[in-house]
Amino acid sequence: MKRFRPATCVAILLAALITFGWLAVPDRAPGARPYEGTTIRAVVNAEYVKYSLTLVEKDLYDTLGVKLETEVIPADAFVAKTLLEFNSGSSPWDLIMFGPSNMPDYGRHFEPLDPWIEKMKLNFHLDDIVDVFRKVMLRYNGKLVSMPYDGDIHIMYWNKVAFERPDNQKKFKAKYGYDLKPPKTWKQWDDAAEFFHGWGWDGSPNKLFGAGASYKPSGSGYSYHWWRERFFAYGGNYFDATMKPLINTAAGLRALEEMVRTMPYYPPGVLLFESEEPKTMLVKGEVPMLCSWTSTGKRVGNPAESVIVGKAGFGIVPGAEIDGKIVHRPPITPGRGMAVSKYSKKKEATMKVLEFISLPEQSLKIVMDAKTIMDPWRVSHLRSEKFRKLFPDADKYLDAIEQSFPFLVPDPVIPAADEYQRKLSFEITEALAKRKSPKDALDTAAKEWDKVTERRGLEKQKAFWGEKLHEMKSLGIEYRPDWAAKAK
Fold first, then answer.
1. Distance CA 209, CA 267 (A)
2. DSSP of 218-274, one letter per residue?
3. What spatial distance separates the first Cα and last Cα of the chain, rounded to whole Å?
4. Helix 347-358 to helix 47-64 angle, to the nearest 10 degrees?
5. 417-432 per-position pLDDT tens digit
6. What number is the average pLDDT over the span 326-337?
7. Which whole-number Å values give the CA distances from 339 to 132, 335, 370, 447, in the listed order?
8. Residue range 291-306, pLDDT digits in tens
9. CA separation (Å) from 121 to 61, 110, 118, 142, 339?
10. Fewer CB in a 10 Å sphere around the end CB: N or C, the chain?
11. Angle between helices 458-474 and 438-456 (to 10 degrees)
């Protein structure tokens, strides 16, 4: 009979106990990689968002021992499918990407951060978050529940060749009576789009286009974003204090009529364009100007695809001249946040993951990479010397982003924000396609908004909107019915 040494017997006994589950193994190893063996499930709305997380995965594992498993639900179905899970009282995910404009629908499903910050001594570097994002993107019922992940806003881009060629300047001055410069107002933008369309403004024999845009109604409601940067500059607002829609007032009508009138100066297919098509036309030198997401700048500066490296200008989107002052209203469009599901069984590890991907040095990797389409949201992102030297004039690009922050307009951050937005975007595109008049389209959208409000409960929506109305007023945004007529 073979005899075992005492130490061997102990080892065999421990192995048996572990095998049959009679001895619990700690789920956190001591020292480095404290969450070794833990897998956190994340959900995002695009492959490029999934890719963005791969940029920090190695450091995440080396530091915490955590592995990420990321599911992609396409943007068109993302809100409906994720809320269906949450509203059932459960969730297969630990880390949730969401659109901050949908916070009223998502927020109750998120784990508040402050108790965990205190308990685990987490540091989210809140003072480093751009002020407007910190105010409008992170809280539900006054509680901190999320962190930014993508600082979506619109800025303006232009091809300097188009605006600086002496022959172009001479022709423009002769036709319009003022100097050709990057537009400050929407009137100047429309004049420039008309002027540049249909000929080789770059000195080539090519028939180029007047401007770029994204007017597809689905996805994130692209046409809505382009409409509302005019709408708010003309004094518009989403609702009055009683939840009566203001989208079909004079400001909305002027904005949409201008967009319809200038459709001939945009590329054919603009009604099908999502975010990337007009960016591609800009970097290939086919359109002289574009209002678009800040991620566009990284493509502009990429010599592997851009013919306008070092030849691009960056600035705040056009506005409206009101009583001698130009009012700019660039939109938050709509951004992305990250939160921890309150249904997660791995809250502690997920909190550490959220902290890690939000760190200034880790999030900088994400927002600097052109393939992520993620945009700066920390002050340190904008001031990073590495970022400011990433491509020619990257410093001017980052400065244009920062200059836009004081004027930003958020989405209507109330329950069903996504539904309101999609209804309006559909009708805007109907008008752009000339299937409806601008007035009929906006009147229909207003009726659809009333239906959404009624379905969600008028008093409930009024309460949410009253809070946001006060918030927007603090940002200097108020309904001004007289502006649409006087704007220049």
1. 6
2. STTTHHHHHHHHHHTTTT--SB-TT--B-TTSHHHHHHHHHHHHTGGGS-TTGGG--
3. 101
4. 110
5. 999 999 999 999 999 9
6. 93
7. 18, 14, 24, 34
8. 999 999 999 999 999 9
9. 20, 19, 5, 21, 18
10. N
11. 120
Q: Which residue has the tokens 């249909």?
A: 198
Amino acid of residue 164: E
- The alpha carbon of residue 469 and the mean position of all alpha carbons in its chain are separated, in whole angstroms, by 21
Residue 272 token pair = 């099908």
Strand partners, 290: 157, 212
Tokens in use for 482? 């007289």
Question: What CA–CA distance (Å, rounded) separates 36 from 61?
Answer: 8
In the chain, the domains with their CATH numbers are 38-150+335-398 (3.40.190.10), 154-332+408-486 (3.40.190.10)
Residue pair 327/403 in contact (Cβ under 8 Å)? The answer is no
Please give the model's pTM, rounded to 2 decimal places: 0.90
Angle at alpha carbon of residue 452, lines to 446 and 457, rounded to 5°: 125
**Cis peptide bond N-terminal to 334, omega within 30:** yes
Tell me how far CA of residue 21 lies from CA of 16, 18, 272, in angstroms.
8, 5, 57
Give dist(CA 65, CA 346) in Å, integer: 14
Which two structure tokens, joined as six digits, stand for 264? 């001939």
